[in-house]
Amino acid sequence: MAWFKRARKPIVSGSKDKASRVPEGLWVKCPSCSQAIYNKDLAASLNVCPKCGHHFRVSAAERLKMLFDDGAWTEHDRDLRSTDPLNFTDTKPYKARLTATIAATGLKDAVIVGTGRIEGIETVVAAMEYGFIGGSMGVVVGEKITRAVERALARRSPLVIVCCSGGARMMEGALSLMQMAKICGALARLDRERLPYISVLTDPTTGGVTASFAMLGDLNVAEPKALIGFAGPRVIEQTIRQKLPEGFQRSEFLLEKGMIDLVIDRRELKATLAQALRFMGAAPAEAPSPPRAERPEVSEPAPQT
Ligand SMILES: [Zn+2]
Asked: Which DSSP category does 159 fall into?
C-alpha cells in the first residue's frame, strides 16, 4: 500500500491548449541572439533581426521585391530549364531532383532576372536562389546571367547581381564550369562599354561563383557576416597545414583584407546601391535630359581643318 495518496485532482495546466492556438510559424527564433521575433516584424525589417542585426537568408523573389521601386519588375527568360545534358545520377537522378525542386520552389532554375527601377534608375538585376539546389550555377544560370548582361548592354543600363550560391552545379560537370568563362566574357564587354556592374555578395557565396562574376563588380559589396570564399575552411586547413584565423571567410574579414569594398546592412542596401549607381553615372529614368536648344552654342568645339 502506498504511503501517500493523491486526494485532490492535480491542477491541469492549460498551456497545451494555449500553445495550439498560436498558429505555427508566427514567431521566428533568431539563431544568433535567440530572440523570438514576430514574423511580421521580421518581414518589416527585411528579414534582419531587430535586436542583433542577424541577416536571415532571403529568397530571390524577396530580394528583387526589396530592391526595385514599388516591388515591381519585369522578369526575363523565366522558362529556361536544364536538359540534364550528362544524364547524371548521384543519390537520385538529376532529372528527378530538378522536377522535385521545380515543384517545391516554383522556379525553373536558381536565378531570377528582372528589369525595373532602383530609386528611378533603370537597372537589370539577377538574384540567385539558394533554395534551388544550393543556388548552384549550371548551364541555365550561366545562360540567364549572360543574357542579363547582354540586356544591360542593349538597354545601356547598369547591372546588379545578387550572389547566393554554393558554386558550380556538379550534376552538369564541366558544362557548369564553362559558365564562369562565358559570364566573365560578357562582363568584359559590359566593362568596355563603361556600364556599371555591382556585385552583391550574400550568405553564402562560394566556389565557382566567387571565382568568377561575384568578384568582378566595379563595386563588390557584401551583407554582414556572409560566408564568402572559394573552398571550405577544412579543405584549406588540410592543404596549407595551418589553423585559420577567427572570422575567416566572413564579410568583415574580407573587407579588412581588401577583397571586398563595402559591408552593407540589408536595410540600407537599396539606398547604397542607388547612390553608387548615381556616382557611376547612371541617371534616373524620369529625369529629362537637358534640352539641346538651351545649351550654349560656344560649348560646341568648332571643327578643325
Ligand atoms: Zn538576433
From this structure: E
Going from the C-alpha of 184 to that of each of 37, 187, 210, the distances in angstroms are 41, 5, 12
Copy the grid coordinates of residue 27: 514567431
Task: Kindly give the distance from the C-alpha atom of residue 54 to the centroid of ligand 1, in angstroms, as a whole number.
Answer: 5
pLDDT tens track, the chain, 305 positions: 677 777 777 776 655 444 445 556 789 999 999 999 999 999 999 999 999 999 999 999 999 999 999 999 999 999 999 999 999 999 999 999 999 999 999 999 999 999 999 999 999 999 999 999 999 999 999 999 999 999 999 999 999 999 999 999 999 999 999 999 999 999 999 999 999 999 999 999 999 999 999 999 999 999 999 999 999 888 899 999 999 998 899 999 999 999 999 999 999 999 999 999 999 999 898 655 444 444 444 444 445 54
State the pairing for strand pair 111-118/121-128.
antiparallel
The C-alpha atoms of residue 88 and residue 90 are separated, in whole angstroms, by 7
- Cβ(186)–Cβ(205) below 8 Å: no
47: closest CA among 39, 56, 38? 56
Give the contacts of 288 (CB within 8 A, at least 6 positions apart).
Answer: none
| Residues whose beta carbons lie less than 5 angstroms from ion ligand 1 | 30, 32-33, 35, 49, 51-52, 54
Q: Is the dihedral of CA 255, 259, 262, 266 positive or negative?
A: negative
Environment class of residue 28 by beta-carbon count within 10 Å: exposed (0-12), middle (13-18) or buried (19+)? Answer: middle
Residue 236 alpha carbon to ligand 1 centre in Å: 30
pTM above 0.70, yes or no: yes
